[in-house]
Amino acid sequence: MKVAIVTGATRGIGRQTAIDLAENGYNVVINYTHSDDAALEVKAICDKYNEALIVKADVSKMEEASMLVDKTLEKYGRIDLLINNAGITKDNLILRMTGADFESVINVNLVGTFNMCKTVSKVLFKQRSGSIINIASVVGETGNLGQANYAASKGGVIALTKTLAKELGLRGIRVNAIAPGYIDTDMTKVLSDDVKNGILNNIPLKRFGSPKDVSNLAVFLASDNASYITGQIINVCGGMVI
Ligand SMILES: NC(=O)c1ccc[n+]([C@@H]2O[C@H](COP(=O)([O-])OP(=O)(O)OC[C@H]3O[C@@H](n4cnc5c(N)ncnc54)[C@H](O)[C@@H]3O)[C@@H](O)[C@H]2O)c1
């Protein structure tokens, strides 16, 4: 049975992706940082299909990322899929953005993705199989007002994805990124109605995305149907960026 690690899997896109992967035959490792209850709730849903595991770990710290991988191997003995979904925002215009807010967003979104990719790559390399999907963002391609830290982190994730696809391809390991536009989750709920309406005006499909819109692509990219796709950044944004 295939094994998938999903980081930041207790809510939003990560939660939906974990559930969809379980439904599609994966044993899922549900990573989280805060709520034990939320993690147990996702586990209970995944357990209906296969046996899931919850592991509390802050992926921005290399030793915790390694522990997450060790616990996965202890339980299942292999890893077939890594979804780097954990992410945070700390928005502000550059003149008001503190160095600490820049650093913490880079640390979770980019360094966390690096930590997980590095640790899991070792396992996939030995297995000569597996795939990595990084959740980036369209703002990593376009930039965005008030998101210097976040856009830089996601731009870094995009470059990391392309580089790892080149480094790991010779072992048959695929590395892709999904770049969502505006997805309706706790992360975006904090935006004002004015900002939301402004965004909506620029979306040709005239609706915000749902976590399912993103998880559907993650399940496809992880599957053998995507076996000739690597190093790609695929936007899920209702046409917001064309
Ligand atoms: N919602 C959107 O519109 C949107 C758009 C583009 C990209 N994304 C990206 O999609 C991913 C999921 O976002 P979401 O909207 O579901 O947000 P969310 O805030 O609902 O979920 C993010 C999850 O990551 C977890 N997390 C945060 N820091 C962590 C850490 N150090 N270690 C482990 N887990 C950690 C959080 O606890 C949370 O469960 C993020 O990478 C985000 O940047 C979201």
Give a structural overview.
49% of the residues lie in helices and 14% in strands. The protein is of the alpha/beta class and 242 residues long. The chain has one domain (3-236): 3-Layer(aba) Sandwich (Rossmann fold), CATH 3.40.50.720. Strands 3-2-1-4-5-6-7 form a 7-stranded parallel beta sheet, with helices on both faces. The longest helix has 29 residues, at 99-127. The N and C termini lie far apart (38 Å). The model has no long low-confidence stretch (mean pLDDT 98). The chain binds nicotinamide-adenine-dinucleotide. Nicotinamide-adenine-dinucleotide binds next to helix 1, helix 4 and helix 7.
Calculate the terminal CA-CA distance, rounded to whole Å. Answer: 38 Å
How many domains? The number is 1
CATH architecture name = 3-Layer(aba) Sandwich
Radius of gyration (Å): 17 Å
Mean pLDDT: 98
Question: How many runs of DSSP E, i.e. beta strands?
Answer: 7
Low-confidence stretches: none
| General form | globular
Query: What is the level 1 CATH name?
Result: Alpha Beta
Query: Main beta sheet, described?
Result: 7 strands, parallel
